[in-house]
Amino acid sequence: MWRRRLSPPSLRWLYPGMRVKRFALLALLGVLLFGLGLAELLPSLGLQGPWPWGLLLGGLFLGVLGIWAMNRSMLSAFTEPEEVPERVYVRRRLEQGPKVVAFGGGTGLSRILRGLKEHTARTTALVAVTDDGGSTGRLRLSYGLPAVGDLVDCLAALSDHSALPELLAHRFDRGELRGHTFGNLFLVTLFEVAGDFAEAVREANAILNLRGQALPATPEAVRLRARFQDGAEVVGEVAIRERRGRIREVFLEPEPEEVMPEALEAIARAELLVLGPGSLYTSVIPSFLPKPLKKALQEAKAPLVYVVNLMTEPGETDGYTAYEHYKAVAYHLGRRPEVVLVHTAPIPEEVLGRYAAEGRYPVPFDPRPFAADGVRVLTGDFREEGPLAQHDPKKVVQALLSLV
Question: Which stretches are transmembrane (predicted)?
Answer without folding.
Answer: 49-70
